[in-house]
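Write out this protein's structure.
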Amino acid sequence: MSETVRSQWGRLIALTTAHFVLDMFPGLMHTILPAVQRSFSLSVAAGGVLLSVFLVGSNAIQVLIGHVRENEDRPLLLYIGLLLTCTILLFGVVSAQRAALVWLSVIALVCGMGVGMTHPESLRAIHRLEGISSSVSSAVFMGGGVLGFAFGSVSSTHLFARWGVAGLIPFCAASVVTAVVLMLLGIRLAVERDEQARQARRTAPRPEERVPFVVVLLIATLIVSSVQLLMWIVPQHISEIGADLTHGGRTVSLFTLAGGLGGMALARFGARRGELNLVILMLAAGIPFVLGYVLLLRYAVSVVLLSVGGFFCYGAYPIMVSIARSSRGPNLGRRMGLVVGGIWLVACVLPMVLGPLAEHAGTGAVIFLSPAGFMLALVLAVAAAVKTHRHKTESSDESKNH
């Protein structure tokens, strides 16, 4: 391995670690939510509002700023975002009697914005690593976030149960340390003015083989909608049936952990089979297991089924991020902001929209909706693959005729 590629892998590992640290915060927000609701006498619907505010903050900011600083190569927003995550400790000063939901929502919004503003610049830094294939670097980086979400999900429940808000201090300390380490490493971003030359060096797909970004965005949105629904409703349902808070954390943790491992384990097949074809195979393999979880929810085997479903279905999402890097559409920063922020912005309103349904019909009824996004994503991915293959064939025929 050359020194250049070695150093690029070092930067990839550092950025993946930063993604791990950042996504611990969304993970813990999902699984400590039932305990926060009890501490501040909030209903399930109010908790859904709080979670949605956090997720809107973390995802809307990516859409708003993903395209800015397109020719700046220093990751200023990455450093700022890491520090803003520490505002979550202000939960500890909120009074349970005085407009608790309002103040908690303000804090959640700022913390969420800190998490979100880091992602477009992190992906631009990943895109600069030309010695590592797009599928692998995207999957490793996204897998770090998924693993961080899983770790935050399970570890936060133990820390919060024992020390309350003070149990979140280690997560904030990790953010500060990570910011300092990235500064010392001198991380740099890909800039838009070099994008055309970079695509040529990376032997990106020819125009007729590149999936339109709007199609990539829709498929990814459907995938993460099902993921978001499962991550929210599973801890709520487990809490509703009287199980321990940590059980919900473990279940969500295993689901997200499996998704991160799935993306990393199968990414190398993307170059061989085609990334879109790989997404189709992963969704087709995972959907039966998610359906099995829904139908066998009360049995111990359901956790295994959900984990296998996460390995394939959630694991397909990092591959979609890689496809977005070379898809036809707006500039790189905006594509990254939309595919890692905009789609979650759409998905994160689900707890707010479905919260009243969960209270009226029960959380078990909402779980039955969770496989729908995966199924629709599979249908759309197949249609896109057929259309792309047709365009490729037509282009090849025209070349032969000329």
